[in-house]
């Protein structure tokens, strides 16, 4: 299976409509080169441009949905369209739509862990509640977004739901790039699953983006890694590899669940 991660640059001087059209063109250019294409988190506005979230929000079946569905259909690819700001009544969500090669919506994930420590995304967006997977030919994929990467229990839940690979779009800051790479590899190693981590390039809201999207195999080996700028990262995935590694090194079978912390001794 051929995967392409489109590490698009978010330029605050580029209108959202223009970036949407450019992203659709980049997806279409992967026709014949990829089976699965992934875009980054909040590439329409920028993950740190919180002042634009409400103004650029849209319903699920809005302009970004329509543009990405058409691009997936034209390119004949499975498309994880990164994420955008979804408006549902008075609530906003960081939402990731996934499309089939026919342009049909096959999954939609609302980010569970919102970043900002009571500011930015954490204050302005509602939290999703559901773990989400979708099925590719011969591979089940779990979905997380950016800050989710710091919470291993989410990915364990996705493994329990059958995931053999994870797609993680992000708007990760350059100052914490070491964590980005480390956590992507850790989630791959501990879950014996592929990780396709797609970040943004550029600078928005005065926050330089890490770039350095990467594709990690179920043994934790980095198959491909991008640089800091706009780039399309490609790698070939073997759908049989997660099962083979889990059979050869069956660490997941040794999980001990439900362990409770000891009670604190009385003083």
UniProtKB/TrEMBL annotation:
Residues 1-239 form the CN hydrolase domain. One of its GO terms (molecular function) is hydrolase activity. Keywords: Hydrolase. Signal peptide: none annotated. PROSITE patterns: CN_HYDROLASE, UPF0012. The keyword Hydrolase applies. InterPro entries: C-N_Hydrolase, C-N_Hydrolase_sf, UPF0012_CS. Belongs to the carbon-nitrogen hydrolase superfamily. NIT1/NIT2 family. PANTHER family: DEAMINATED GLUTATHIONE AMIDASE, NITRILASE-RELATED. This is Hydrolase. The lineage of its organism: Bacteria, Bacillati, Actinomycetota, Actinomycetes, Kitasatosporales.
